[in-house]
Write a structure and sequence with these properties.
2 copies of one chain form a homodimer.
Chain A: H1 3-22, H2 29-36, H3 40-44, H4 50-67, H5 78-93, H6 102-110, H7 116-141, H8 151-172, H9 176-192
The structure holds a DNA duplex.
Chain lengths: 198, 198
DNA sequence: TAAAAAAGCGAACGTTCGTGCTATTATTTT
DNA sequence: AAAATAATAGCACGAACGTTCGCTTTTTTA
């Protein structure tokens, strides 16, 4: 890895932390420069525009999040779904980002700001939700979950619990909300489970 | 009402719209001045600091929201709870704010920013959630809802659906999410309902 | 090791930000 | 109508913003 790419990565690492705590607009060139002991222009040269810095920040945040959602060695269907939801909860509770999930924060920050950043963000969010969709769908086809509730409806509800836990925790710093989310998710999964699968 | 108070109200009205679309930090003195055809100092004099402008904006937003949540002519308990949740959904779907619920947006914006604004916001949010708590609690004591699920747990889940609908809709502009939320809420209420009621 | 390319610095640009003054109008009150 | 008060404008400030440019240093390639 060349020196430039190394620096770029360090910059983005710091950027994800700022994005988590102060929002994606809070990722300013000056703040990064000060925090990293570099010049503004030195930072800037790596990206060419603030928008590109922001989308690159999202990309790194995505990699970091994905690294916390390992579903290796789990059988497809309900088991993998459980592993994924557990991973997501652990990722939110013991977050690699000091200010909570970058994507949930950025979503409400950019939902009304058309442009490159919003589009990029939307892509990533759709992809993340799609992963949840896929597992629920698989679990249903395998007969692990009942078929009387549409998959998108289940996606909505599970995703809602994750978002709510993240938001409430960040605002109150009370980890109790993760327990609420855990209970909610567990109750719903066992509710949706078919009888033959214990 | 004196002229000054009238102007102040006009300013705050505009401020709530900006807060909804661009966030509470996006409520800048300059933007307000331009949008209202006034001078920056003219705007500023009404509040004395940006923080006070922001908290005043939250207060007006609160009044506006409260005006959309009428539960008049409803019996306490399950009926009033239903009315309240319906009102909240309608408020989110046909929002008086162009960029979605000011409080949900401001919550993720200020959760990591200690200070007067965050404290004020937290107070309002706690109060709003408290109203939900109260109705669920009443409905349970009246025997309308089963007692095997703790009230805070139910508050968490219902609130999660409202938040998720607002967030997903603002990001995608797809009103379908409100239907998901409606179905989720209805299913849960009837699930938690005791048999003797209806 | 010399030449070429990449990385980084420093200063300046035009804007916008919140805030502080001093006037100058409007509006109340007497 | 006169006096007192409230409301707004105008101007300036220091700071932070993203961005550009030219120059120097470091790193890579040949």
């Amino acid at each position: 890895m060349t020196k430039g790419q190394q620096t770029r990565d360090t910059i983005l690492q710091t950027a994800t932390q700022i994005a988590s705590k102060d929002g994606l607009e809070g990722v300013s060139i000056g703040k990064l420069a000060e925090q990293l002991g570099m010049s503004k222009s030195g930072i800037f040269a790596h990206f060419g525009s603030k928008e590109d810095l922001q989308t690159a920040t999202l990309d790194l945040a995505w990699e970091i999040m994905a690294g916390h959602l390992s579903t290796a060695n789990t059988a497809p269907g309900l088991e993998r779904l459980r592993a994924m939801l557990n991973g997501w909860l652990l990722y939110l509770e013991h977050s690699p980002f000091q200010g909570g999930c970058v994507f949930m924060a950025a979503s409400t920050e950019f939902d009304g700001q058309p442009g490159k950043v919003r589009d990029h963000l939307l892509n990533l969010v759709v992809h993340a939700v799609g992963v949840l969709f896929e597992q629920l769908s698989t679990a249903q086809h395998l007969g692990h979950l009942r078929g009387d509730i549409p998959v998108p409806q289940m996606v909505f509800e599970l995703h809602a619990f994750l978002q709510a836990a993240n938001n409430a925790y960040q605002l109150s710093k009370d980890p109790q909300y993760f327990e609420y989310a855990r209970h909610a998710i567990e109750r719903h999964l066992s509710m949706w489970q078919t009888s033959e699968v214990l």
